[in-house]
Amino acid sequence: MANIKASNFTIYDDTFRVFVGSTQLSGTVIAAVWGTYNSGTSTFTPNQPIYSQGGFGYVDVTTPSAPELQIILNRTTQTQYPEGTLLSLAIYNKPDLSNWDSSAAMAVLSDSSWTAPAWSLVGGDKDVTFTSGTTALVGGFTYSGGGFDTITLVPEPSTGALLMIGSVG
Fold first, then answer.
1. Dihedrals φ, ψ of 164, to 5°?
2. Which residue among 26, 105, 155, 159 has the highest number of C-beta atoms inside a 10 angstrom radius?
3. 3-state SS, residue 138
4. Burial of 138: CB neighbours in 10 Å, binned 0-12, 13-18, 19+
């Protein structure tokens, strides 16, 4: 059976800042990908490879005053991400936008409104945003309610760093 790629699940934002620890990232484009997060095992499963299987994403902080974040997901099989599946967003400090890399500094964000749509060959697109309900499962997120939101990547994704922020253990 053919892949279903007509519906898109998309986030776009241009009002945020990205930090690794206390240092604001600038002058670069880093990667982002939709997927799912298992809180029981503290693991993120990406929709990947990003380009060849149904999604792409980037975070452009080349100019800190004009950032751009855009991540699109479309499923690759008829059973992937059934309607209502809670999706998470991983942003990671790596310029290679083609492959997920759990060894890079990262944040994993989620929001109760980020659920898979009723996928369709015609229409069915769903656009989502950061909200006051967006939470950081790994790293940090502060919603501003206007102005620039703050995304903080875990500086080193070692077990020790994740334990410090309560993401494993």
1. -60, -35
2. 105
3. strand
4. buried
Q: Encoding tokens for residue 57?
A: 């994403």
- Every domain of the chain and the residues it spans: 9-164
Nearest to 97 by CA among 9, 33, 13: 33
| pLDDT computed for residue 101 by the predictor | 82
**Cα separation of 17 and 93, whole Å?**
13
Residue whose C-alpha is closest to residue 99's, from 142, 64, 47:
47
CA-CA-CA-CA torsion for 75, 80, 84, 89, nearest 10 degrees?
A: -60
Q: Give the residue ranges of the chain where pLDDT is below 70.
A: 1-6, 48-56, 76, 156-169
Instruction: In whole angstroms, give the CA distance from residue 74 to residue 144.
Output: 29
